UniProtKB/TrEMBL annotation:
Keyword Signal: no
Regions that span the bilayer: 292-310
Phylogenetic placement of the source organism: Bacteria, Pseudomonadati, Pseudomonadota, Alphaproteobacteria, Hyphomicrobiales
PANTHER family linked: DIGUANYLATE CYCLASE DGCM-RELATED, REGULATORY COMPONENTS OF SENSORY TRANSDUCTION SYSTEM
Alphabetized NCBIfam families for the sequence: GGDEF, sensory_box
Protein name: diguanylate cyclase
InterPro entries attached to this UniProt entry: Diguanylate_Cyclase, GGDEF_dom, His-kinase-like_sensor, Nucleotide_cyclase, PAC, PAS, PAS-assoc_C, PAS-like_dom_sf
Catalyzed reactions per annotation: 2 GTP = 3',3'-c-di-GMP + 2 diphosphate
Enzyme class at the top of the EC tree: transferase
Length: 634
């Protein structure tokens, strides 16, 4: 090589080195920016998932509320069609509807309307008829018998916004006889939504299928009744699916929002749960700025080091030292990942463990290298993980993601999410697996909590109404298959409204929790289910039990509630908290035309007979007639 050629080669080295430094800095900035953007997307995706859970839960609550209204309406329609609309029948039903309204908070009003639109249960209290209302005209013109959910309207009783559920009833000749109407108020729904703390500037809105707002939290009074039918959620074709994420700028308050909508499959309802996008991204934005400042400082350091390297290229020894220093900095970046990176050999032992193992599992890398990779996995999860690792070693899977329980050195047991990928030699043969693991314990706790909220009553710890309805259908089907019996107890705390008025709602809540513990203590069989049916009413489902045994359980519960000695001065008959219980048993295989509602109705009738007979007693469904005769003095 000539001197000229050598000098030309040396002259190009600084330019190449400078280009390398610029490319490195640009790559670091690009990768950091991409990671921050991915972190931002992760925050938005997590918010969408949370909003989806809230939307599904609140949609189910709205459906359950309408089902509760409909259960009362169906019974009234049946009674009207059997007994007519005579004064005696209307008087009895009026008292029943008023009692049901007082007992169940989510019921705003219950009314029976004749074929002219006049209220039969509240004559003289309403200034006009219902004959021009949409729900009345619907039933007047349509012979359909199913429940009709109407648009939100202002109640004629108190001017409050309500959503209506109504059913038509016919006269004995089959002609239109009138409408049974039940409503739940916008205020009740809005107040219920206040329980879901999903963000300081979050919002939950329930809308009718045509775009009218039924209830909203916050600012329900401002927005209820307003139409948003001209918004993309009701107009754009790609948003007409049953559910999905929805990012938009709210026309109601002008805020950028991340939301999830869920359309009811049974009723014309749409639930929209939203959170303020700026509020949601504020923590990420602050952390991203901090991290990017660190990256910029690091890039500047690399640039300075690169400048020094360019100036010292002709000094071989110093260049080697500088390159080693640079390699150390890059290794620091690679080792600084918050996730634990491990490499598993074909013998299933750990070949490499990143320093973050101390934070993830509590062990240092030098304590883990050489140990079995699957040693800390929970025995219940181990077969699934082992099967995936075996499949990857055989080349049947290239990558996999799985979640499992793993032991922690100090914290007992944690949940890990691992992404695994096969590694290969230059010749293509598999030589191991690389796993990137992160701690998802808090996420699993949140999932478990949301699952419990969906099936458990938050006040008493018993099953909620939704869980009860599901189990009732399951046990009915099982009893039908097995040709076995099924029993139900309906329990209602006597004069509970008076108890609340006398001692206050906190004491009322404590009373319900005490009664719930008593009921739970008497339902210890594997198949028994104790549930809070609504308000101060409880239900106990008893599979594979006869009437006598059912009555025994009910009597023990009644006696235990009485013997608990909870002072109740306004319960003049006993001076303490008591309960009335109605029980019913059946064999589903012998009642082919009946459904699960028949068992509930039988127990409910027995409960009302127990209350009519003086309360603090148990009446089985077969004893209803005799109990009513005793109550009337015959």
């Amino acid at each position: 090589m000539s001197a000229v050629t050598q000098r030309a080669g040396w002259s190009r080295l600084p330019l190449r080195a400078a280009a390398f430094v610029v490319l490195t800095c640009t790559t670091i900035l690009g990768v950091s920016g991409w990671r921050e953007w991915a972190a931002r997307d992760a925050v938005l995706k997590a918010a969408e998932a949370e909003m989806a859970n809230v939307a599904r839960s609140l949609t189910q609550h709205a459906e359950d509320s309408l089902d509760l209204l409909d259960s009362g309406v169906v019974g009234v329609v049946s009674r009207l069609e059997m007994d007519g609309t005579g004064p005696a029948t209307i008087a009895k039903l009026g008292n029943l509807l008023e009692a049901r309204k007082k007992a169940i908070a989510r019921i705003h009003s219950l009314a029976i309307i004749d074929d002219q639109g006049n209220s039969l249960t509240s004559p003289g209290t309403i200034g006009s008829t219902f004959s021009d209302d949409a729900f009345f005209r619907y039933h007047q013109l349509s012979p359909k018998r199913e429940a009709h959910v109407g648009r939100p309207v202002k109640s004629l009783l108190d001017g409050e916004w309500v959503i209506t559920l109504s059913r038509r009833f016919n006269k004995q000749d089959g002609s239109f006889g009138g409408v049974v109407l039940a409503t739940t108020s916008s205020g009740y729904l809005s107040h219920f939504y206040e329980q879901f703390e999903i963000g300081r500037n979050s919002a939950v809105a329930l809308m009718h299928g045509d775009g009218l707002i039924i209830a909203r939290n916050p600012s329900n009074e401002t927005f209820v009744g307003r139409s948003v039918s001209d918004k993309p959620l009701f107009r754009e074709p790609d948003l007409q699916r049953p559910k999905g994420a929805y990012h938009f700028k709210s026309s109601l308050d002008g805020a950028e929002r991340v939301s999830f909508f869920n359309r009811s499959s049974r009723f014309p309802l749409l639930l929209l749960a939203t959170v303020d996008k700026d509020e949601l991204l504020a923590p990420w934005r602050a952390a991203a700025i901090s991290r990017m400042l660190y990256v910029l400082a690091l890039v500047m350091l690399i640039a300075v080091i690169g400048g020094v390297l360019v100036r010292q290229l002709q000094r071989g020894q110093r260049m080697a030292v500088a390159l080693a220093e640079k390699e150390a900095h890059f290794r620091l970046l690679a080792e600084g990942s918050s996730d634990m990176v491990t490499r598993i050999g074909l013998d299933e032992r750990l070949r490499y463990v990143s320093p973050s193992s101390v934070r993830i599992v509590g062990w240092r890398p030098d304590q883990l290298i050489g140990t079995p990779a699957l040693a800390g996995i929970n025995p219940e999860d181990l077969p699934e993980v082992q099967a995936i690792v075996d499949a990857m070693k055989r080349g049947e899977k290239e990558e996999a993601r799985l979640t499992y329980r793993n032991s922690h050195r100090q914290n007992g047991e944690i949940w890990l999410e691992s992404t695994m990928q096969v590694t290969r030699k230059d010749n293509g043969r598999i030589d191991g697996v690389v796993a990137i693991s992160r701690d998802v314990t808090e996420h699993k706790k949140l999932e478990t909590r949301l699952e419990m909220l969906a099936i458990e009553d938050s006040l008493t710890g018993l099953a909620n109404r939704r869980r009860f309805d599901e189990r009732l259908k399951e046990e009915w089907a099982r009893a039908y298959r097995d040709r076995s019996s099924l029993a139900l107890l309906m329990i209602d705390v006597d004069h509970f409204k008076a108890y609340n008025d006398e001692y206050g709602h906190p004491a009322g809540d404590a009373c319900l929790r005490r009664i719930a513990k008593i009921i739970a203590a008497e339902t210890q069989r594997a198949g028994d289910l104790a549930a809070r049916y609504g308000g101060e009413e409880f239900a106990v489902l008893l599979p594979n039990i006869d009437a006598a045994s059912c009555a025994g359980v009910g009597e023990r519960i009644r006696s235990a509630i009485h013997d608990a000695g909870l002072v109740h001065r306004t319960n003049l008959a006993a001076g303490c908290v008591t309960a009335s219980i109605g029980g019913a048993t059946c064999r589903p295989v012998l009642e082919r035309t009946a459904g699960v509602a028949s068992l509930v109705e039988a127990a409910d009738r027995a409960l009302y007979a127990a209350k009519d007979a003086g309360r603090d007693r148990l009446v089985m469904s077969g004893e209803v007639a005799s109990a009513m005769l005793k109550a009337s003095g015959q």
